[in-house]
Design brief:
The structure is a homoheptamer of 74-residue chains. The first copy, chain A, is mainly β and 74 residues long. Chain A has one helix and five strands, in the order H-E-E-E-E-E. Chain A has a single domain, classed as Roll (SH3 type barrels), CATH 2.30.30. Helix content of chain A is 9%, strand content 57%. A five-stranded antiparallel beta sheet of chain A has the order 4-3-2-1-5, with no helix packed on it. The longest helix of chain A is centred in the first third of the chain and has 7 residues. Chains in contact: A-B, A-E, B-C, C-D, D-F, E-G, F-G. Chains B and C meet through strand 2, strand 3 and strand 4 of B and helix 1 and strand 5 of C. Strand 4 of chain D pairs antiparallel with strand 5 of chain F, so a sheet runs across the interface.
């Protein structure tokens, strides 16, 4: 299925593991549980990664949309 | 319960201890008392941490939403 | 009283001394006289502090909301 | 008179000399002639100061609100 | 066909390979699948490039509009 | 005439030479031809100045409002 | 014809060659094909220039408005 709108692509990723890249350069990996039109997202089983290695386990993470650059499958 | 929307996850964290990561790199730990759609938040018994050590006790803290990157359980 | 909404916490701080931390790293201390939904605030008897020492007396200070990171009791 | 809202404080400063601190660290001193809800302001007899010394006379200055951090009496 | 409005040009690029340049200087190449008025975009078969060499394969990428500078044909 | 609102001051400057200071530190001098509520402005016979010397002639310049810090008479 | 509003000046530049200066300091030259109220623009036969020399040919370029500082005739 081709997404008609960008949020369709996020919807298709719900409950799947994604990488969220932040403007501050860190990467948060986790299972996408929720998002809204501001691209605020909630990840479950989240981990912060930097340069390919895990820095810390975060658990449940609410990320503010305007801190986000890119979301892709993990 | 899975959050349908990101703010549901913040609502579930109300009265629990959270870590609020800021764009300026500092972390504020405290009990989440209130939030709104701008992600302005109020923490109680708040402390500022940096690199894993407590820098200062803040007490009651109002944090402006656009300064926030990530909110997670403490 | 627990604040239901973040602005309730600012309302409870009216006429009390607060520390306003700015994105530019300086801290303004003063008595909170007014605020609005943009978190524009007015402080009375305001002083600018840096690294724990007072840099200058400001008197009455209008601070633009989007310059603010955090507001807490002084 | 206590300001109920932050813009009341700006209104009380109309036609008085103020210091406008900018995000780019410079300070503009001048007589406050006009402002609006975006905190765009107009100063008359304006001067740019840096580290306590006058850098140049500007005359009439329109300052865009989102460049402003703080406005206080001169 | 000349685009009347900028989004017409993005519409004409749908399903074609594009380069998306980000404010953080990296370039994401991929097939444009979706976009909206915020210029949030979704790319398929996406790759991150830096200084002309591919850094990593991303697959499906949601890019937040406000992180984007420029979109052009690959 | 005292400006009631900040845009009145810009209106009074129409067809006069102004200095537009940008967030990126450069100064654009030129005759103010048009502006809008976002403070997007158009200058005619515009020149870019840096540290008091002219860097280049621009001619007709459209400047996006959010890049602007201050507008004053040249 | 004097532009009444800033977008009139962009309209007059349609199908002419312009220089678009970006907040990231690069310059994009090309023929202005489309723009909107956010100052999103589309250029044709676009080239990226830096310090007066061409860095690369871009062809058709969609530039997000908030990345733009200034648009002028090439």
């Amino acid at each position: 299925m081709d997404p008609e709108r960008p949020l369709d692509a996020l919807n298709a990723a719900r409950n799947k593991r994604v990488i969220v890249e932040l403007k501050n350069k860190s990467q948060i990996l986790g299972k996408l549980k929720a998002f809204d039109i501001h691209i605020n997202v909630v990840l479950d089983e989240a981990e912060e990664h930097e340069n390919g290695t895990m820095k810390r386990r975060i658990g449940n993470a609410f990320i503010r949309g305007d801190a986000i650059v890119l979301i892709s499958p993990a």
